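Please produce the structure of this protein holding zinc ion.
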Amino acid sequence: MILHSIEAGPVDTRGYLIADEQSREAVIVDVPMESHARFVSLLQQERLHPIAIVLTHGHFDHVGDVAPLARSLGTPVYIHPADAPMLEQPMSNFPGLDLPIEGMKATHLLEGGDVLECGGLRLRIIHAPGHTPGHILLYEMRENILLSGDVLFHSSIGRTDLPGGDYDALMENITKKVLTLSDDTIVYPGHGEATTIGFERNHNPFILEYLEHL
Ligand SMILES: [Zn+2]
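Below is the modeled complex.
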């Protein structure tokens, strides 16, 4: 497996490039502002063929450069239907913030349980609303990795105070759909450093507090 992270934009958002070494097929997960040219040159350097751009959710910092990137690569864009309206109007949930982000219509919609094949990699979609209604995570079983977007971070969780946020739903989804993965699953979040399910299960203060009061 080939995995690269690109950190970019005003709130240090991480986008990822995951690819199968044999087939050279690649999937891009989240496209922060000012990441477009970096994704294009990474794909060229590694001689990869992008087959999909998947958005974990519709927040502006994760979709910032998706329209120009999709246009220049000619690659289809996937999002969960509940977050598709945000992709069309990325600044709609952030009144007062004026950033030049181009909205777009998704090419395909993804639901929980769907599987995206990328060469020998199989990316299973986990729908985990709470940070946004249509937030999805991608789990790859062979490599045992999870792309967690803004659901789970190293020692933290996604905020739930934005429109569509729901703390109870977020914690229930983390407990029932994320912590059910094995402790050695490597977690690549939408902000900050990578972590593991085991570390978060045992050290994440938000998870520990929630489990204590269940
Ligand atoms: Zn977000």
